[in-house]
Amino acid sequence: MNKIAIAANGLAPPVGPFSPAIRSDPLIYFSGQIALDNAGKLVAGDAAKQAEQIFSNIRILLEAARRSFADVVRVGVYLTDMKDFAGVNDVYAKHFTAPFPARTTIGVASLPLGASVEIDCVVQA
User: Fold this and answer.
1) 15-32 pLDDT, tens per residue?
2) Cα angle at 9 between 123 and 115, to 5 degrees?
3) What pTM value is reported for the model?
4) Which of 57, 4, 56 is nearest to 28 (CA)?
């Protein structure tokens, strides 16, 4: 198996021992992203505001992998409060067009650094 780590300038380094993304043809697996700015600070605001930062970070990783949101085939969304679903869904809808990626949304007790939302994805290589 061939694994190639993908990183991007302009993103904060991971908060643990993991790669932001790994390419293992025919797919690229993006680690869960929380709303870190490029200085590594969690963006203040509600889950929708955090989702905007997350999708900005995902876009940077997609560009580093020479891919776009059109290449995303699966998304995982993790929320600390399911009441935030509608706001995060509105942000999500701005980034995808039909056919939409498969998606799972899961309510969780907590996320790293006190984030309200975390998003991971799988991308066609």
Assistant:
1) 889 999 999 999 999 999
2) 70
3) 0.96
4) 4
